[in-house]
Amino acid sequence: MTTCVVTGGAGFLGSHLCEKLLAEGHRVICLDNLETGSLENIAHIRDEKFEFRHTDITEYVDIPEPVDFVYHLASPASPIDYLRLPLHTLKVGSLGTNHMLGVAKWKRARFLIASTSEVYGDPKVHPQREDYWGHVNPIGPRGVYDEAKRYAEALTMAYHRQQGVDTAIVRIFNTYGPRMRPHDGRAIPTFLRQALQDRPLTVFGEGSQTRSFCYVDDLIRGIVSLAESDVHTPVNIGNPDEFTLLELAKSVIEVTDSRSEIVFEALPTDDPQQRRPDIGRARDLLGWEPTIKLDEGLRRTIDQSGVERLVGAGD
Ligand code: NAD
Known about the structure:
Elements: E1 3-7, H1 12-23, E2 27-32, E3 50-54, E4 69-72, H2 79-84, H3 86-107, E5 110-116, H4 143-163, E6 167-172, E7 175-176, H5 187-196, E8 201-204, E9 210-212, E10 214-215, H6 216-227, E11 235-237, E12 242-244, H7 245-256, E13 262-265, H8 280-286, H9 294-305, H10 307-311
Parallel strand pairs: 1-2, 1-4, 2-3, 4-5, 5-6, 6-11, 7-10, 8-13
Antiparallel strand pairs: 9-12
Helix pairs in contact: 1-6, 3-4, 5-7, 7-9
The structure holds nicotinamide-adenine-dinucleotide.
Protein backbone atom coordinates (compact mmCIF):
# COMPACT_ATOMS: atom_id res chain seq x y z
CA MET A 1 0.00 0.00 0.00
CA THR A 2 1.37 3.44 -0.86
CA THR A 3 1.32 6.25 1.71
CA CYS A 4 0.31 9.76 0.65
CA VAL A 5 0.79 12.87 2.77
CA VAL A 6 -1.72 15.62 1.95
CA THR A 7 -0.99 19.08 3.37
CA GLY A 8 -4.10 21.25 3.58
CA GLY A 9 -6.10 18.02 3.57
CA ALA A 10 -8.91 19.52 5.66
CA GLY A 11 -9.47 22.29 3.11
CA PHE A 12 -11.82 22.41 0.13
CA LEU A 13 -9.60 20.71 -2.48
CA GLY A 14 -7.52 18.74 0.03
CA SER A 15 -10.55 16.96 1.50
CA HIS A 16 -11.70 15.85 -1.97
CA LEU A 17 -8.16 14.68 -2.74
CA CYS A 18 -8.00 12.64 0.50
CA GLU A 19 -11.25 10.90 -0.46
CA LYS A 20 -10.04 10.11 -3.96
CA LEU A 21 -6.72 8.69 -2.72
CA LEU A 22 -8.50 6.53 -0.12
CA ALA A 23 -10.92 5.29 -2.78
CA GLU A 24 -7.90 4.22 -4.83
CA GLY A 25 -6.63 2.17 -1.88
CA HIS A 26 -3.85 4.45 -0.59
CA ARG A 27 -3.09 5.27 3.01
CA VAL A 28 -3.54 9.02 3.66
CA ILE A 29 -1.90 11.22 6.31
CA CYS A 30 -3.62 14.60 6.35
CA LEU A 31 -1.62 17.53 7.77
CA ASP A 32 -3.56 20.71 8.45
CA ASN A 33 -3.54 23.54 10.99
CA LEU A 34 -7.25 24.30 10.30
CA GLU A 35 -6.45 27.94 9.51
CA THR A 36 -8.92 28.05 6.61
CA GLY A 37 -9.97 24.39 6.51
CA SER A 38 -12.19 22.59 8.99
CA LEU A 39 -12.71 19.19 10.57
CA GLU A 40 -16.24 19.30 9.15
CA ASN A 41 -14.72 18.71 5.69
CA ILE A 42 -13.23 15.36 6.75
CA ALA A 43 -15.60 14.32 9.55
CA HIS A 44 -17.46 11.91 7.23
CA ILE A 45 -14.29 9.97 6.32
CA ARG A 46 -14.50 6.65 8.13
CA ASP A 47 -11.48 4.72 6.94
CA GLU A 48 -8.73 3.18 9.02
CA LYS A 49 -6.26 4.13 6.26
CA PHE A 50 -6.93 7.82 7.03
CA GLU A 51 -5.21 9.83 9.73
CA PHE A 52 -5.53 13.54 10.56
CA ARG A 53 -2.55 15.22 12.24
CA HIS A 54 -3.03 18.76 13.47
CA THR A 55 0.16 20.36 12.12
CA ASP A 56 1.37 23.78 11.11
CA ILE A 57 3.75 22.99 8.25
CA THR A 58 5.62 26.26 8.70
CA GLU A 59 6.90 24.69 11.94
CA TYR A 60 9.15 21.62 11.96
CA VAL A 61 7.44 18.65 10.23
CA ASP A 62 8.31 15.11 11.29
CA ILE A 63 6.72 12.05 9.66
CA PRO A 64 8.22 8.85 11.08
CA GLU A 65 6.77 6.39 8.54
CA PRO A 66 7.80 5.81 4.91
CA VAL A 67 6.03 8.11 2.41
CA ASP A 68 5.50 7.59 -1.33
CA PHE A 69 3.71 10.82 -2.33
CA VAL A 70 3.60 14.32 -0.83
CA TYR A 71 0.68 16.39 -2.11
CA HIS A 72 1.39 19.92 -0.92
CA LEU A 73 -1.85 21.93 -0.96
CA ALA A 74 -1.61 23.91 2.28
CA SER A 75 -1.98 27.65 1.70
CA PRO A 76 -4.68 30.25 2.15
CA ALA A 77 -6.28 30.26 -1.29
CA SER A 78 -9.17 32.70 -1.35
CA PRO A 79 -8.41 36.45 -1.60
CA ILE A 80 -10.42 36.98 1.61
CA ASP A 81 -8.01 34.64 3.41
CA TYR A 82 -4.67 35.71 1.98
CA LEU A 83 -5.47 39.42 2.31
CA ARG A 84 -6.23 38.71 6.00
CA LEU A 85 -3.12 36.53 6.39
CA PRO A 86 -0.44 38.14 4.18
CA LEU A 87 2.59 37.09 6.23
CA HIS A 88 1.30 33.59 6.84
CA THR A 89 0.66 33.21 3.10
CA LEU A 90 4.26 34.14 2.30
CA LYS A 91 5.52 31.88 5.07
CA VAL A 92 3.52 28.83 4.03
CA GLY A 93 4.63 29.27 0.40
CA SER A 94 8.29 29.60 1.39
CA LEU A 95 9.05 27.89 4.71
CA GLY A 96 6.15 25.44 4.50
CA THR A 97 7.09 24.40 0.96
CA ASN A 98 10.72 24.05 2.01
CA HIS A 99 9.74 21.73 4.87
CA MET A 100 7.58 19.56 2.67
CA LEU A 101 10.23 19.35 -0.07
CA GLY A 102 12.63 18.29 2.69
CA VAL A 103 10.22 15.50 3.68
CA ALA A 104 9.94 14.37 0.03
CA LYS A 105 13.72 14.39 -0.34
CA TRP A 106 14.32 12.45 2.87
CA LYS A 107 11.59 9.87 2.09
CA ARG A 108 12.41 9.71 -1.64
CA ALA A 109 8.76 10.49 -2.30
CA ARG A 110 7.18 12.08 -5.36
CA PHE A 111 6.29 15.71 -4.49
CA LEU A 112 3.40 17.67 -6.05
CA ILE A 113 2.81 21.32 -5.34
CA ALA A 114 -0.56 23.01 -5.85
CA SER A 115 0.37 26.17 -7.69
CA THR A 116 -2.12 28.52 -9.26
CA SER A 117 -3.20 30.39 -12.35
CA GLU A 118 -2.34 33.51 -10.27
CA VAL A 119 1.32 32.95 -11.22
CA TYR A 120 0.30 34.45 -14.58
CA GLY A 121 -0.98 37.62 -12.82
CA ASP A 122 -3.19 39.75 -15.04
CA PRO A 123 -2.08 37.91 -18.17
CA LYS A 124 -1.07 39.65 -21.38
CA VAL A 125 -1.25 36.37 -23.27
CA HIS A 126 -4.54 34.58 -23.70
CA PRO A 127 -5.24 31.69 -23.17
CA GLN A 128 -2.40 31.04 -20.72
CA ARG A 129 0.14 28.35 -21.67
CA GLU A 130 2.65 27.03 -19.18
CA ASP A 131 5.58 28.69 -20.98
CA TYR A 132 4.10 32.19 -20.50
CA TRP A 133 5.93 33.80 -17.55
CA GLY A 134 3.18 36.05 -16.32
CA HIS A 135 2.51 39.67 -15.47
CA VAL A 136 2.33 39.90 -11.69
CA ASN A 137 2.34 43.00 -9.49
CA PRO A 138 4.76 42.08 -6.68
CA ILE A 139 3.82 44.99 -4.41
CA GLY A 140 0.02 44.98 -4.76
CA PRO A 141 -2.08 43.39 -1.99
CA ARG A 142 -2.45 40.15 -3.97
CA GLY A 143 1.33 39.92 -4.43
CA VAL A 144 1.65 37.91 -1.19
CA TYR A 145 -0.20 34.99 -2.76
CA ASP A 146 1.06 35.25 -6.33
CA GLU A 147 4.70 35.71 -5.37
CA ALA A 148 4.55 33.01 -2.68
CA LYS A 149 3.39 30.56 -5.33
CA ARG A 150 6.00 31.73 -7.84
CA TYR A 151 8.68 31.32 -5.18
CA ALA A 152 7.29 27.87 -4.29
CA GLU A 153 7.55 26.85 -7.96
CA ALA A 154 11.15 28.12 -8.12
CA LEU A 155 12.01 26.23 -4.92
CA THR A 156 10.38 23.07 -6.24
CA MET A 157 12.42 23.21 -9.46
CA ALA A 158 15.61 23.92 -7.47
CA TYR A 159 15.04 20.82 -5.32
CA HIS A 160 14.40 18.87 -8.51
CA ARG A 161 17.46 20.15 -10.40
CA GLN A 162 19.97 20.35 -7.56
CA GLN A 163 18.81 17.60 -5.19
CA GLY A 164 17.17 15.17 -7.61
CA VAL A 165 13.77 15.28 -5.87
CA ASP A 166 10.97 13.84 -8.01
CA THR A 167 8.64 16.86 -8.29
CA ALA A 168 5.47 17.99 -10.07
CA ILE A 169 3.79 21.39 -10.31
CA VAL A 170 0.08 21.72 -10.98
CA ARG A 171 -1.20 25.18 -11.88
CA ILE A 172 -4.79 25.10 -10.72
CA PHE A 173 -7.37 27.38 -12.34
CA ASN A 174 -10.58 28.41 -10.53
CA THR A 175 -12.22 25.32 -9.12
CA TYR A 176 -15.60 24.94 -7.47
CA GLY A 177 -17.76 22.27 -5.91
CA PRO A 178 -19.21 21.05 -2.61
CA ARG A 179 -17.41 22.23 0.60
CA MET A 180 -16.53 25.71 -0.59
CA ARG A 181 -17.25 28.11 2.25
CA PRO A 182 -20.29 30.34 1.60
CA HIS A 183 -18.39 33.44 2.77
CA ASP A 184 -14.98 32.76 1.24
CA GLY A 185 -15.47 35.64 -1.18
CA ARG A 186 -15.07 33.65 -4.41
CA ALA A 187 -17.62 34.15 -7.17
CA ILE A 188 -19.42 30.80 -7.26
CA PRO A 189 -20.15 30.31 -3.53
CA THR A 190 -21.05 34.01 -3.24
CA PHE A 191 -23.49 33.89 -6.17
CA LEU A 192 -25.00 30.59 -5.01
CA ARG A 193 -25.52 31.93 -1.47
CA GLN A 194 -27.12 35.11 -2.80
CA ALA A 195 -29.29 33.36 -5.40
CA LEU A 196 -30.58 30.73 -2.97
CA GLN A 197 -31.80 33.57 -0.74
CA ASP A 198 -33.25 35.60 -3.61
CA ARG A 199 -30.83 38.40 -2.72
CA PRO A 200 -29.07 40.55 -5.35
CA LEU A 201 -26.01 38.95 -6.96
CA THR A 202 -23.00 41.29 -6.55
CA VAL A 203 -20.93 41.42 -9.73
CA PHE A 204 -17.64 43.37 -9.63
CA GLY A 205 -17.00 46.03 -12.30
CA GLU A 206 -19.18 45.55 -15.35
CA GLY A 207 -18.90 41.78 -15.05
CA SER A 208 -16.94 41.58 -18.31
CA GLN A 209 -13.87 39.97 -16.70
CA THR A 210 -13.63 36.29 -17.57
CA ARG A 211 -12.91 33.15 -15.61
CA SER A 212 -12.84 29.44 -16.40
CA PHE A 213 -14.43 27.23 -13.78
CA CYS A 214 -13.44 23.62 -13.22
CA TYR A 215 -15.60 21.19 -11.26
CA VAL A 216 -13.66 19.70 -8.34
CA ASP A 217 -13.94 16.04 -9.45
CA ASP A 218 -12.31 16.88 -12.80
CA LEU A 219 -9.53 18.79 -11.05
CA ILE A 220 -8.76 16.04 -8.52
CA ARG A 221 -8.58 13.46 -11.31
CA GLY A 222 -6.05 15.71 -13.09
CA ILE A 223 -3.95 16.24 -9.95
CA VAL A 224 -3.70 12.52 -9.18
CA SER A 225 -2.88 11.69 -12.76
CA LEU A 226 -0.08 14.30 -12.77
CA ALA A 227 1.28 12.96 -9.45
CA GLU A 228 1.31 9.44 -10.87
CA SER A 229 3.11 10.54 -14.06
CA ASP A 230 6.80 11.33 -14.50
CA VAL A 231 6.21 14.95 -15.59
CA HIS A 232 8.29 17.65 -13.82
CA THR A 233 7.35 20.82 -15.68
CA PRO A 234 4.24 22.83 -14.65
CA VAL A 235 0.90 21.60 -15.98
CA ASN A 236 -2.27 23.70 -16.14
CA ILE A 237 -5.34 21.92 -14.82
CA GLY A 238 -8.57 23.80 -15.33
CA ASN A 239 -11.57 24.05 -17.57
CA PRO A 240 -10.95 26.02 -20.79
CA ASP A 241 -14.66 26.98 -21.12
CA GLU A 242 -14.52 30.72 -20.48
CA PHE A 243 -17.35 32.82 -19.06
CA THR A 244 -17.73 36.46 -18.10
CA LEU A 245 -18.72 37.02 -14.49
CA LEU A 246 -22.03 38.37 -15.78
CA GLU A 247 -22.67 35.12 -17.68
CA LEU A 248 -21.80 33.17 -14.56
CA ALA A 249 -24.26 35.20 -12.47
CA LYS A 250 -27.01 34.52 -15.03
CA SER A 251 -26.24 30.78 -15.06
CA VAL A 252 -26.44 30.65 -11.27
CA ILE A 253 -29.81 32.43 -11.30
CA GLU A 254 -31.09 29.97 -13.91
CA VAL A 255 -29.85 26.82 -12.17
CA THR A 256 -31.22 27.92 -8.78
CA ASP A 257 -34.46 29.20 -10.28
CA SER A 258 -33.91 32.38 -8.29
CA ARG A 259 -35.70 35.73 -8.36
CA SER A 260 -32.48 37.63 -7.62
CA GLU A 261 -31.40 40.70 -9.56
CA ILE A 262 -27.82 41.49 -10.53
CA VAL A 263 -26.10 44.55 -9.03
CA PHE A 264 -22.64 45.95 -9.83
CA GLU A 265 -19.90 46.84 -7.32
CA ALA A 266 -16.40 48.35 -7.57
CA LEU A 267 -13.66 46.10 -8.98
CA PRO A 268 -11.13 44.90 -6.37
CA THR A 269 -7.45 45.94 -6.79
CA ASP A 270 -5.50 43.91 -9.37
CA ASP A 271 -8.49 41.72 -10.26
CA PRO A 272 -7.35 39.84 -13.41
CA GLN A 273 -9.37 40.67 -16.54
CA GLN A 274 -9.01 37.34 -18.31
CA ARG A 275 -8.33 33.83 -17.15
CA ARG A 276 -8.38 30.71 -19.28
CA PRO A 277 -6.02 27.75 -19.28
CA ASP A 278 -4.44 26.29 -22.38
CA ILE A 279 -4.72 22.62 -21.42
CA GLY A 280 -2.74 21.25 -24.39
CA ARG A 281 0.01 19.96 -22.10
CA ALA A 282 -2.43 18.16 -19.76
CA ARG A 283 -4.12 16.58 -22.81
CA ASP A 284 -0.84 15.50 -24.43
CA LEU A 285 1.06 14.35 -21.36
CA LEU A 286 -1.73 13.02 -19.13
CA GLY A 287 -4.61 12.37 -21.52
CA TRP A 288 -6.64 14.59 -19.18
CA GLU A 289 -9.49 16.94 -19.93
CA PRO A 290 -12.50 18.10 -17.93
CA THR A 291 -15.86 16.47 -18.59
CA ILE A 292 -18.31 18.37 -16.37
CA LYS A 293 -20.02 21.44 -17.83
CA LEU A 294 -20.75 24.51 -15.72
CA ASP A 295 -24.52 24.04 -15.27
CA GLU A 296 -24.06 20.35 -14.38
CA GLY A 297 -21.29 21.25 -11.88
CA LEU A 298 -23.47 23.94 -10.30
CA ARG A 299 -26.33 21.44 -9.89
CA ARG A 300 -24.00 18.86 -8.32
CA THR A 301 -22.63 21.52 -5.96
CA ILE A 302 -26.13 22.38 -4.78
CA ASP A 303 -27.28 18.73 -4.50
CA GLN A 304 -24.20 17.53 -2.63
CA SER A 305 -23.82 20.56 -0.35
CA GLY A 306 -27.48 21.12 0.46
CA VAL A 307 -28.98 24.62 0.53
CA GLU A 308 -28.36 25.05 4.26
CA ARG A 309 -24.59 24.65 3.97
CA LEU A 310 -24.39 26.87 0.88
CA VAL A 311 -26.31 29.65 2.57
CA GLY A 312 -24.24 29.27 5.76
CA ALA A 313 -24.46 30.98 9.10
CA GLY A 314 -24.48 34.73 9.53
CA ASP A 315 -26.96 35.56 6.79
P1 NAD B 1 -8.56 25.98 1.43
O1 NAD B 1 -8.30 27.27 2.14
O2 NAD B 1 -9.90 25.37 1.52
O3 NAD B 1 -7.48 24.89 1.85
C1 NAD B 1 -6.18 25.20 2.27
C2 NAD B 1 -5.88 24.34 3.50
O4 NAD B 1 -4.54 24.60 3.94
C3 NAD B 1 -6.79 24.64 4.69
O5 NAD B 1 -7.34 23.46 5.20
C4 NAD B 1 -5.86 25.32 5.70
O6 NAD B 1 -6.27 25.13 7.04
C5 NAD B 1 -4.54 24.65 5.35
N1 NAD B 1 -3.38 25.41 5.80
C6 NAD B 1 -3.11 26.72 5.61
N2 NAD B 1 -1.93 27.05 6.18
C7 NAD B 1 -1.45 25.91 6.75
C8 NAD B 1 -0.28 25.60 7.49
N3 NAD B 1 0.64 26.52 7.78
N4 NAD B 1 -0.11 24.33 7.91
C9 NAD B 1 -1.02 23.36 7.64
N5 NAD B 1 -2.15 23.61 6.93
C10 NAD B 1 -2.36 24.87 6.50
O7 NAD B 1 -8.14 26.25 -0.10
P2 NAD B 1 -8.34 25.34 -1.39
O8 NAD B 1 -9.24 26.08 -2.32
O9 NAD B 1 -8.67 23.95 -1.03
O10 NAD B 1 -6.87 25.40 -2.01
C11 NAD B 1 -5.93 24.34 -1.84
C12 NAD B 1 -4.67 24.64 -2.64
O11 NAD B 1 -4.98 24.77 -4.03
C13 NAD B 1 -3.97 25.94 -2.23
O12 NAD B 1 -2.58 25.74 -2.27
C14 NAD B 1 -4.39 26.92 -3.30
O13 NAD B 1 -3.43 27.92 -3.47
C15 NAD B 1 -4.51 26.01 -4.52
N6 NAD B 1 -5.44 26.57 -5.52
C16 NAD B 1 -6.80 26.49 -5.33
C17 NAD B 1 -7.66 27.02 -6.29
C18 NAD B 1 -9.15 26.92 -6.17
O14 NAD B 1 -9.86 27.31 -7.12
N7 NAD B 1 -9.72 26.41 -5.10
C19 NAD B 1 -7.12 27.64 -7.44
C20 NAD B 1 -5.74 27.72 -7.56
C21 NAD B 1 -4.91 27.16 -6.61
